[in-house]
Amino acid sequence: MRYRFALITGATSGIGEALAKALPAKTGLLLTGRDGERLAALKAELDGGPGGGDPRVETLVADLAEDAGRDAVITAAETLPIDLLVNNAGLGQVGQVLEIPAAREREMAEVNVVAPVVLTRALLPGMLARARAERRRAGLIVVASIMAFQPAPMMATYAATKAFDLHYAEALAAELAGQPIDVLALCPGGTRTRFGARAGIQARRSSGWDSPERVAREALAALGQRSVHVVGGRNRLVTSLPRFLPRRTVAALYRRALAGMGGA
Questions:
Q1: Which of 163, 218, 239, 260 to pair with 55, CA 20 to 30 A apart?
Q2: pTM, whole model, 2 decimals?
Q3: Rounded Cα gap, residues 257 and 245, in angstroms
């Protein structure tokens, strides 16, 4: 891991925070999220606290569901030698499409689909130019999900956005083959983060889920080794189901499982 400067979206908690902590201390960080207090606390921790050493962390409060937030992140990133972009920010919601507020449905599409496309398209040319000039390799991680591999009733929009992320990253990896950049679609399963509570998943359903630290470690280890990485053997088994069962059957299984996860 010899990246000079990483941009991590959705860094206020969970996988994004774990990735920030897992990167080497020499890697500069631009961390974005919606919670300014959590970003400030993470910056203080990673910088060694008030007065502790040379600051290596920059933070930006931004809402990636809005053009203004995406533009602010791009403007900030263009002033830095970003050579690792982690599109991690994501939103989900358990429930039937017609029961989830329309604004929430749109927000999922904006954050999970539009933001990775806009940020990647804006920053990729500069990342590649610097990598060529410095004879280094850049990195791009798009956080998808094991739900990207099949339709998932009761989380229909979320699963569809993650299918987009998976296919987008895989296609980019093929397009950029031979270029000085490694592209990874990261596909975690259930992970113990704030995402579950925000998505309406009951806390007791998180037993056996992976830690964000494990996901971060596996992501960084897989980057440059493969273009798709599913975290954990159990999750790899789950993502293989569509190969052996009719998609209608898989969708019915997901509907049953996810219907039991919702609630306070």
A1: 218
A2: 0.88
A3: 16
| In the chain, % of residues over pLDDT 90 | 73
- Whether 3 sits among the annotated catalytic residues: the reply is no
Q: Does domain 5-259 have CATH number 3.40.1160.10?
A: no
The C-alpha atoms of residue 199 and residue 107 are separated, in whole angstroms, by 13
Q: What Cα–Cα distance (Å) separates residue 132 from each residue in 12, 106, 126? A: 32, 38, 10
Contact 149, 242 (CB under 8 A): yes
Residues 46-66: pLDDT tens digits? 986 544 455 689 999 999 999
Rounded to a whole number, what is the distance in angstroms from the first to the last CA of the chain?
A: 41
Q: Please tell me which residue in 3, 158, 168, 254 is annotated as part of the active site.
A: 158
What is the average pLDDT across 171-197? 89
Domain boundaries, the chain: 5-259
